[in-house]
Each structure stands twice: as structure tokens, then as C-alpha cells.
Design a protein that fits this description.
Blueprint (H helix, E strand, L loop, with lengths): L11 E12 L2 E12 L31 E6 L5 E7 L4 E6 L8 H16 L8 E6 L4 H8 L14 H6 L20 E4 L2 E4 L8 H13 L3 E7 L3 E4 L8 H14 L2 E3 L11 H7 L4 E6 L7 H16 L1
Parallel strand pairs: 5-6, 5-9, 9-12, 10-11
Antiparallel strand pairs: 1-2, 3-4, 4-6, 7-8, 10-12
């Protein structure tokens, strides 16, 4: 492997507050939601674009309004696939964890650490950049191992090897990273095992949530976390790598001190998320953590900061 360079009558107002406290790899979370009934006696003045005095447009179908937090979809068992948003720039950088649920829970912990960091350090997001973090894609698989929905701590992770492997797949027993539309096959490969890629590309609601978000927002760059190999891997869908993808690979690798790799070549994979992104002409990289336990926060923070500065240039 080579190194490479709102009709609007509002009857219910929901207000919520959440705070995150993360120390090391152990995290705690508390959320409060209060609902108040409001009687609307006068018509609400609607802005020309359909918003309520704040410039907001009409809500996308099947997607909640984007604010600091949005729900972009549901899992097979009805758990939220949640996105956290920071900054207001035109260039969106998307970070994704938990594609393999309870098999690689550290990828979700890392993403939640990033959420906490950006909440505490809003200036870390350059002025012309918007960051979105989706910590958990396979929410059902993660729940099987942690018993928690949303944020969890490292101490919540349970299960033996067999249970952890089973939690790699969603509730339909599909490997979500074989369910995207790049060289998709109904039967895919994971290491030396055959795994289900679903009945068709995006047959699974979790993968569909991701694809709908991507196609509706077209991020400038995407970083997806996996485990475990300790490297950064460029994406392509058998049509060559874009120069922007090569740059993104090296920027993250150089800053984080992970190895930079032209492609993931341990075994052939089909229906892969980052390769599908490549087919959409979106620069995307896979960052494989060194193991399935630790977030390697300091290493990855350097890579994250480097990518944000690179995109802002």
C-alpha cells in the first residue's frame, strides 16, 4: 500500500434541552423534553419562503426540520437515526459512526465525543463550513449490546464475541455496509464469511436514511468510521479515485498519524457506503480505528481538525 498525497397553526411547542459530559471514554447523557399547549388566536405571519419569521423553508418530506439536531430516519425497530449539526457554512462535512452497530461501538463513541467537542468549542468549525455528525446508523445493533438508545458509555457495552458479531447486522440481519448502490450484490463478503446485502440496494431503512440525507444535502466531504485496521482508506467505485478524495485521505492520515491507503484491499467488498459516495462524486474516506474498543480521540481530533481546515480553504 502506498502513501498518497410550517397552513401553519401551531398547537404544540416542544422545547428540549440536552447536555453531554464526556470524560475519557466514559460518557453520560441527560435529555429533558417539555410540551406546552399554545392556543393560536391570530394567524401566524408566514415569511415568503414558507418559514416562521426565521427564514426556514418548508420541511422536507419524511425529515424533521434541521436545527442543532434532526432525525433523518428510523431503524428497522423504530429507533431514531439522529444527526447533529454545527455551523452555518455552505460547505458541509459529514462524519458517520456506528454503521456496524454493536460490533464497533467505539466508532459511535468517537462520533459522540465529536458532538460534545463541537458543542463546547463552536469556533472549531470554520466560518464557511457546516459539520454534521451521525453517531449511530445501526441503532438496533448498538442497542442489542448496550441496552441504550442514543449516547452510552464504554461500560455499557456487553456481550461475548458471538453477540458482538451478531450486533454488526441490523434487525433484518443485513450488513448495512453491503446495502449501498456500488457494485451491490444480494450476498456480500465480510472477511471469509458470506453476509446479506439486503434484497436490493437501500432495502434497509437505515441505509435509505443515509442516502436520502446525502442526496438532499450533497456534502463536500464525508468521513466514515469503522474498525479495525488503524488506517485511512480512499474510496472509489471502480471508476478511479477523484483527486479531492486523494487529498482528503492524505490530510486526515498525515494529521492523525494513521497510514494512508489507496483502497481497502483485504477482501472484495460490495455495496460499500464510501464507494457509493465515490460514485456520486462526493469525496469520502474510511477511517478504520485500530481496535474495536478505543476511540483514539486525540489522533482523530487532529485528523478532524485538519479536514475542516482543508475544506475551508
Amino acid at each position: 500500500m502506498n502513501k498518497i498525497l410550517i397552513v401553519l397553526g401551531v398547537l404544540i411547542v416542544v422545547g428540549g434541552g440536552a447536555f453531554l459530559v464526556i470524560k475519557g471514554t466514559s460518557s453520560t447523557y441527560k435529555a429533558d423534553e417539555k410540551a406546552a399547549e399554545v392556543v393560536v388566536e391570530e394567524p401566524i405571519e408566514v415569511e415568503p419562503d414558507g418559514g416562521i419569521g426565521d427564514g426556514a423553508g418548508p420541511l422536507p418530506e419524511d425529515e424533521e426540520e434541521q436545527g442543532p439536531v434532526s432525525i433523518i430516519g428510523k431503524s428497522v425497530e423504530g429507533r431514531d437515526v439522529t444527526a447533529y449539526h454545527f455551523g452555518t457554512g455552505d460547505k458541509e462535512v459529514l462524519f458517520v459512526g456506528g454503521l456496524h452497530g454493536g460490533y464497533t461501538p467505539n466508532t459511535s463513541l468517537l462520533a459522540f465525543e465529536l458532538v460534545d467537542y463541537l458543542e463546547s468549542n463552536p469556533s472549531a468549525v470554520p466560518d464557511d463550513v457546516r459539520v454534521t455528525v451521525i453517531p449511530v446508523v445501526n441503532a438496533d445493533g448498538l442497542y442489542d449490546i448496550t441496552g441504550k438508545e442514543g449516547l452510552f458509555s464504554k461500560n455499557d457495552v456487553t456481550g461475548d464475541d458471538a453477540q458482538r458479531i451478531a450486533a454488526r447486522f441490523n434487525a433484518n440481519e443485513v450488513d448495512l455496509n453491503r446495502n449501498f448502490n456500488c457494485l451491490w450484490e444480494e450476498e456480500g463478503t465480510w472477511q471469509s464469511k458470506s453476509v446479506s446485502g439486503g434484497s436490493k440496494p437501500f432495502s434497509e431503512p437505515e441505509a435509505k436514511a443515509i442516502s436520502t440525507y446525502i442526496e438532499g444535502n450533497t456534502p463536500t466531504a464525508v468521513v466514515v468510521y469503522y474498525a479495525a485496521a488503524g488506517g485511512v482508506y480512499a474510496s472509489n467505485c471502480k471508476n478511479g479515485m477523484m483527486p479531492e478524495t486523494l487529498e482528503l485521505t492524505n490530510v486526515y492520515a498525515d494529521a492523525s498519524d494513521y497510514s494512508a491507503n489507496e483502497e481497502f484491499d483485504f477482501y472484495e467488498i460490495t455495496g460499500d457506503m464510501v464507494n457509493w459516495l465515490a460514485s456520486k462524486k462526493i469525496p469520502a474516506i474510511s477511517v478504520l480505528l485500530t481496535d474495536r474498543e478505543n476511540t483514539e480521540w486525540s489522533k482523530n481530533l487532529k485528523g478532524i481538525e485538519a479536514v475542516l481546515n482543508h475544506v475551508a480553504e
